[in-house]
Amino acid sequence: MKALILAGGYGTRLAAIAKNTPKPLLTVADKPLIDYAVEKLRPVVGLTEIVVVTNNKFYENFLQWAKSHTGTEIRVVNDGTNTNEERLGSVGDLNYVWSKERVADDWLIIGGDNLFDQGLEVFMSWAVSKEPAVTIGLYDIGDIKAAVKFGVCALDKEGKVISFQEKPEHPASSKIAMCLYYFPKETLGYIEEFRKESNTLDAAGSYIKWLSEKKNVYGFNFSGKWYDIGSIESLEDARAHFKT
C-alpha cells in the first residue's frame, strides 16, 4: 500500500502568509502541517511509500522538506502546474499520480492541510474490512451552519454512505467529509469513469458524491480534534488550540 499526501494547492485564501510557502509547510506548534500527516501514516501496517504531489511553484520547497525525513520512503511528484488557474485540483492530482504508477496498489489519501489528532490504525482496520469498497473519513464539526463549506454525509446502520451533499446550501447535518480516503486498487479505474461522465477532475467532494451514487462507499467517524486549514482564521485557531 502507498499513501498520497495532496499538496498541489496554491494557498490563495492564505496569500498574505503563504505566498512563498506552501500551505502544508506552514507550522502549528512549531511543526509543519504535513509532518503531522507523515506521523499519522508511518505506523500504518503495510505502507511502503509516502508520495507527496505538489506543483512546480512549490516543488523545490517539498524536496528540501523531504530531505529532513528518514524511515518510510518519501517521494515528491511535480504535477507541472505553475499557477492557481492551471491547477489540476485534488482529483486531477490523484489521476496524475495514478496514471504514472506502473503497478496498481491500494492508496491511502490524505490532505496536506488537514490536521487531526486521532490515529489511523482503527480507520485502516475498518477500511480493509470493507474492501473492495472505498472508505472515507468523517468528522462532526458540531456546527450545521459551518457545514455549508464541506461535503455533508449520511450513513446507514452498516456505515455505508447513503447521502453526500457537496457544499449544500441547507446542510442536513454537521457530519462532514475530511480529506482522507482509502482506495483499494480495484477502485482506481473509477476515476476515468468519473472523468468521462462529468468532464472534470477538480474537487474531491464531487468525485466522492459520484462514487457514493455509483459504487459502494463507507464512512468512518473520527473523534478528537480536526482542523481544515483553509484560511488565516482556521490556522490561527489551530495554532491556539491544537496540542501535540
For the report, how would you describe the main beta sheet? 7 strands, mixed
Helix-strand topology string:
EHEEHEHEHEEHEEEEHHEEH
Computed CA radius of gyration, to the nearest angstrom: 17 Å
Distance between the termini: 27 Å
Spell out the blueprint of helices and strands.
Elements: E1 2-6, H1 15-18, E2 27-28, E3 31-32, H2 33-41, E4 49-54, H3 59-67, E5 73-78, H4 89-100, E6 107-111, E7 114-116, H5 121-129, E8 134-140, E9 151-155, E10 161-166, E11 175-183, H6 190-198, H7 204-214, E12 217-222, E13 226-228, H8 232-241
Parallel strand pairs: 1-4, 1-6, 4-5, 8-12
Antiparallel strand pairs: 2-3, 6-11, 7-13, 8-11, 9-10
Please describe the structure with a list of short key phrases separated by commas or semicolons.
Spore Coat Polysaccharide Biosynthesis Protein SpsA, Chain A; single chain; two-stranded antiparallel sheet; 30% helix; 13 strands
